[in-house]
């Protein structure tokens, strides 16, 4: 009898409990660093929960979001990330200290597109992520964990209940 000795690919599993820990740890890093953001800007969809949690932990009520599409599936990406409308008007952030929140800096290109879009308008922009991959082109100021594994986030580890592309329910 033979068995398949091929190991399963390594995965980083983030539970909702660990997500809560990550939010508080990241917020503490921001506080310890002395950075006081005027606004927390979420990169949707992955950064929305983190931005909300950071907003509460840092007592920042001014939250906004920018939609960026890059991943289309597991290890499937567009060539470049694309900001989708509506985008916050850069002029609305003039002179503000912005904390940009996302779930992961994988290639880093999404964070780079967002940071560069606002760079000339804000007083300062810093980035916070739950996970950072070793090959990212952006080094976020605030990182909870570093990994080279595929990450199973609690909100995306199971398929959607509805397939909007095909319209079939699961």
Automatic annotation (TrEMBL):
Residue stretches making up the Phosphoribosyltransferase domain: 13-156
Database matches in InterPro entries: PRTase-like, PRTase_dom
UniProt-recorded Gene Ontology molecular function terms: glycosyltransferase activity
A Pfam family of this chain: Pribosyltran
Name of the protein: Phosphoribosyltransferase
Domain of life: Bacteria
Entry keywords, A to Z: Glycosyltransferase, Transferase
């Amino acid at each position: 009898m033979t068995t398949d000795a091929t190991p399963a690919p390594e995965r980083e599993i983030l539970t909702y409990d660990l997500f809560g820990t990550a939010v508080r740890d990241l917020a503490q890093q921001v506080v310890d660093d002395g950075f006081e953001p005027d606004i927390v800007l979420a990169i949707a969809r992955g950064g929305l929960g983190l931005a909300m949690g950071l907003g509460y932990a840092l007592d920042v009520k001014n939250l906004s979001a920018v939609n960026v599409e890059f991943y289309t599936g597991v290890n499937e990406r567009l060539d470049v990330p694309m900001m989708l409308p509506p985008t916050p008007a850069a002029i609305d952030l003039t002179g503000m200290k912005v904390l940009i929140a996302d779930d992961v800096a994988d290639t880093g290109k999404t964070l780079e597109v967002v940071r560069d879009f606002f760079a000339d308008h804000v007083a300062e922009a810093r980035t916070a992520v739950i996970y950072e991959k070793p090959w990212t082109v952006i080094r976020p100021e605030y990182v909870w964990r570093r990994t080279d594994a595929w990450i199973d986030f609690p909100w995306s580890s199971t398929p959607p209940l509805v397939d909007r592309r095909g319209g079939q329910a699961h």
